[in-house]
Design brief:
two-stranded antiparallel ribbon, 61% helix, mainly alpha, elongated, single chain
Length: 135
């Protein structure tokens, strides 16, 4: 058995113990860790800014940003991944049937998430015009 195989096997056997130790360390050293993170962010501000800018252009970055926006506005759904796939596939408004335009093109036909503002449940995809009329 190679050392790598042994270490992998050992890690699998001790996974819970290791996690507990990490949790205890983080709890006992919160201020130290926070200070180290703050120093790192200050020292690498431009590098982190560039990384985040590039990440937001990836498919995963766009997906994460979309999920965060939906949750921020109060949208509640059981399966965000499934909803995101439907969101990407949707090309026409489910109310008036118009083809979605781009945000800022002056037509107000860009894609919106219609949801109940009281309970947060998703209803359907609409153009901005139909979404505003529905409120």
């Amino acid at each position: 058995m190679s050392r790598a195989e042994y270490m992998k096997e050992w890690y699998e056997k001790n996974k819970e113990k290791i996690r507990e130790q990490q949790k205890e360390y983080k709890q006992a050293n919160k201020d130290k860790i926070r200070e180290q993170q703050k120093e790192y962010k200050q020292a690498n501000k431009d590098k982190l800014k560039e990384y985040n800018k590039e990440y937001r252009q990836t498919d995963k970055g766009k997906k994460v940003k979309t999920f965060l926006n939906w949750k921020y506005i109060g949208l509640i759904h059981d399966d965000y991944d499934d909803l995101y796939e439907k969101y990407l596939a949707s090309t026409n408004c489910e109310e008036c049937g118009c083809e979605y335009g781009k945000k800022g093109d002056g037509t107000h036909t860009f894609k919106c998430m219609d949801h109940n503002h009281i309970d947060g449940k998703f209803r359907n995809f609409l153009c901005c015009k139909c979404n505003l009329l529905r409120k």
